Amino acid sequence: MIDRPKEIQTLQAGRAFAALAVLFYHAEITLGLPKYIGHEIVPAAKAADSGVHFFFVISGFIMAYMHAAEPSSLQSFKEFAWKRARRIFPPLWAALTFALALLFVTNHFTLDAAWLSIASAYFALPQETQPLLAVEWTLSHELLFYSLFAVTLLSKKLGYLAIAAWFGLSLTLGVSGYGTPLQTLFSHYNILFVFGIAAAALLRTGFVRFSAAAVAFGIILRVAAWISVASGKMQSHDLSAVLAFGGADALIVFGLAGCESLYRFSVGKIPKYIGDASYSIYLVHFLFVSAACKLIVVAERFIGIPDVVAYMLVVGIGLAGGVVFYECVERPIMRMTPRSLKRREHLAHSSHSS
C-alpha cells in the first residue's frame, strides 16, 4: 500500500469555488421567482450551476490521483468503498433528517408524502424529483462513478475499460439533465468524471511544466462557456456546455495542481476552510436560501431593501448555514466515524472483547 499523496490545497480552493458558485446560482433563481423579488438580479449567476461541473471534474481527478499507483486487491476495494460511504452518507443522512424536520415544523409534510421517494433519498438513488434536498441528484452520479472506479481497485484493466465504455455511452447515447436511473446512468454529466481522470493522468507526465498556461487557457475557456450559458446561447446541461466546461475545468485542475507542485504556494486559510466545508455548504445551502428569501419578503413590508443587498443577504445566510452545519454536524460525525475500515474492525473487535 503506497503512502497517501499530500493534500492539494488549490483543489480545496476549487471545491470552495464550486460550492459558492452553486450557492450564487440558487440565490439568483430563487429570488427571481414571482413569489419573491420576481426578476433577475445578477444575470451572470444563471451560469453558476456550472459549479457542479467543477465538482465532478475534481472528483474524477482526486480518485485517479489518489489511487493510480495503488495495487489492486480486495482490501483496497473494501477500504475505498468504506471511505467513500463514510464521506458521503453520514452528512447526507443528517442533512436529509434536518430537511424532513423542517417539513414537519412548517406543516409541509403530509401523510400522503412519497415515502418511497424519501427512503430513496437516504440512499442517494436516482429520482425524477428531489423531495428534500434539491442538490442530491448529483450524489447519484458521484456514487455511480465511485462504483465503477472501485472496480479498478480489483482489476485496473477491467475497471478502466468499464469507465471508458461508460464514457463512450454517455457521450453518444447520453441525455441532458437527470431523473430516472437510465438517465443518470448515461447522462452527459458523467463525461466530467473522465475529464478529471485525464487531468490526473496529465499531471503525471512531463507536461506539468505547462501548468500555468493550462490554468490561463482553462480560465479563458470557462469564462467563454459561462458567458454563453448566462446569455442563453446554451444550457449548462447541454452536451456542448458539458464538453466546454469539462475541458476548461480539466485544464484548470491539472494546471492548479501542477503549479502548486512546482511553486509550493499556499491558497490561504479562508479558501481552504470553505473548501473543507464545501460538502456541508453544498448539501444544506438551499434550505437556508429558501428561508432567507421568505425573510426578505417579510422584511420588505417594513423597510426597502435594494435587490443587490437582498441577494447578498440570501447568499450570506446560505453560506453561514452551511458553515454551521459543517462545524456542528459534519465535523463531529467525521471525528466519530473511523477513517479506515481496519480501524473500524479493530474497534468492533475491542468492543466484543470487553
Structure description:
- With 354 residues, the chain is mostly helical.
- The chain has one domain (9-353).
- The chain contains 14 helices and no strands.
- It has helices spanning 9-31, 51-67, 74-105, 115-122, 137-151, 156-172, 181-185, 191-203, 211-230, 239-263, 269-276, 278-299, 307-336, 341-353.
- The longest helix is centred in the N-terminal third of the chain and has 32 residues, at 74-105.
- 39% of the residues are buried.
- Residues 1-5 and 344-354 have low confidence and may be disordered.
The number of distinct helices, counting runs of at least 4 residues, comes to 14
- Ranges where pLDDT stays below 50 over 5 or more residues in a row are 1-5, 344-354
The percentage helix is over 70%
For the record, give the distance between the C-alpha atoms at the N and C termini, rounded to a whole number.
31 Å
Oligomer: single chain
| Radius of gyration using CA atoms only | 21 Å
Structural class: mainly alpha
What is the overall pLDDT average? 89
What's the SSE pattern? HHHHHHHHHHHHHH
Characterize the biggest β-sheet.
none
The total beta strand count reads 0
Domain module tally: 1
Q: Beta-sheet strand percentage?
A: under 5%
Q: Outline of this structure?
A:
With 354 residues, this protein is mostly helical. The protein has 14 helices and no strands.
